[in-house]
Specification:
With 106 residues, the chain is mainly alpha-helical. Helices cover 70% and strands 0% of the residues. The protein starts with a helix and ends with a helix.
Length: 106
């Protein structure tokens, strides 16, 4: 964490697209309601995950900005660490929703 907070390295976070789901939203009505709800929840949480990626990227870029000093640098590092944590939390939610989706098909 110390090395990352000095802007020397960082985690690479990925965005995840679901183009087939996005393209087929209108025809989900034939699926069981529980499956529809879970698919939409997965899609929503993936979009929220993408927003976390954007936030973390912003704060990560600030770690390279020489104008960010002292207290501001500390705030940037805290926000960066919080962003990584929130990404992990959101990714866990997505994984749980996908597991529930798999169970809903049984």
């Amino acid at each position: 964490a110390g090395e990352r907070s000095q802007g020397k390295s960082g985690l690479t976070l990925k965005k995840y697209a679901v183009p087939l789901l996005d393209a087929r939203l209108a025809v989900l009505t034939w699926l069981p309601t529980a499956v529809q709800v879970l698919l939409l929840e997965v899609r929503t949480h993936l979009r929220m995950l993408d927003e976390e990626v954007d936030q973390v990227h912003y704060y990560f870029q600030l770690t390279f900005d020489p104008k960010v000093i002292e207290d501001n640098r500390q705030s940037v590092n805290i926000n960066l660490e919080n962003g990584y944590r929130q990404y992990g939390d959101r990714a866990r939610i997505v994984a749980e929703k996908i597991a529930k989706l798999e169970q809903a098909w049984v």
